[in-house]
């Protein structure tokens, strides 16, 4: 992706969403890594993409790296990942997220 588009969150996030839907997780991860600034929508696209590709552990891994305030959509995506994974880690994260919700 050209540099001028890579620095545009809307374009980069849309590309991540598309690539994840096509199952091209590696390319989506590459764009994500190259982005200089990430927002909650970008993180949400990655988490949702991992869930859509049944990579639930990766979804929770990236969720744990989010250092900005979550929105309702991200909460829903994380709960979905936890429900699909259904292990001790997922239960712990799900309960922690539920306790943090406003």
From TrEMBL:
UniProt-listed Gene3D superfamilies: Tetratricopeptide repeat domain
InterPro entries: PPR_At4g14850-like_plant (IPR046960), PPR_rpt (IPR002885), TPR-like_helical_dom_sf (IPR011990)
Listed GO biological process terms: RNA modification
Name of the protein this chain belongs to: Pentatricopeptide repeat-containing protein
An example molecular function term from Gene Ontology annotations: RNA binding
PPR repeat residue numbers: 8-42
PROSITE patterns: PPR
């Amino acid at each position: 992706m050209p540099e001028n588009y890579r620095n545009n969150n809307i374009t980069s996030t849309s590309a991540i969403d598309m690539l994840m839907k096509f199952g091209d997780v590696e390319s989506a991860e590459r764009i994500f890594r190259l982005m200089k600034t990430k927002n909650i929508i970008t993180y949400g696209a990655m988490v949702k993409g991992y869930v859509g590709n049944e990579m639930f552990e990766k979804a929770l891994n990236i969720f744990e790296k989010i250092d900005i305030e979550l929105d309702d959509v991200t909460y829903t995506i994380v709960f979905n990942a936890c429900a699909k994974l259904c292990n001790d880690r997922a239960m712990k994260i799900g309960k922690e997220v539920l306790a943090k919700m406003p």
